[in-house]
Amino acid sequence: MGDSPDDHTSMWIVQPDDDGSPPSIIHLNSVVCAAHLLPVFGQEFVPTTLSLIDTLDTFTRFYVNKFVDHHTFEIVF
Fold first, then answer.
1. Is the Cα dihedral 66, 20, 60, 48 positive or negative?
2. Dihedral sign, Cα of residue 36, residue 11, residue 53, residue 20
3. 11 with 40: CB under 8 angstroms?
4. What angle do CA 27, 30, 31 make, to 5 degrees?
5. Which pLDDT value is given to residue 55?
6. Is the separation of the CB atoms in 15 and 61 below 8 Å?
7. Which of 26, 29, 34, 54 is nearest to 46 (CA)?
8. Whole-Å CA distances, 6 to 1, 26, 34, 50
């Protein structure tokens, strides 16, 4: 989302496509590393019954965590 990282966290924000199309296929030789996504929580409380399986369906935007390790920090500038 946007052309630059978030001003407060300096992390990029991503969101799924809203057009209902299936996810794109990414060739394995183009994958550099896994991405660590953090939900953009907003102002509401997170239900205590929320499971990890439901996270992608519950939240609409995610931070790409560049602080997860040294290599990710270097790649996701």
1. negative
2. negative
3. no
4. 95
5. 85
6. yes
7. 54
8. 9, 26, 20, 26
Phi and psi at 74, nearest 5°, equal -75, -35
* Residue 10 contacts residue 16 (beta carbons within 8 Å): no
- Report d(CA 77, CA 73) in Å as an integer: 6
What sign results for the dihedral spanned by CA atoms 24, 27, 62, 59? positive
Stated pTM of the model: 0.71
Residue 39, H or E segment: strand 37-39
Cα–Cα distance measured from residue 1 to residue 8, given in angstroms and rounded to the nearest whole number: 15
Largest CA distance in the chain: 40
DSSP 47: P
Please give the residue that has the higher pLDDT: either 19 or 36.
36
Contact 71, 33 (CB under 8 A): yes
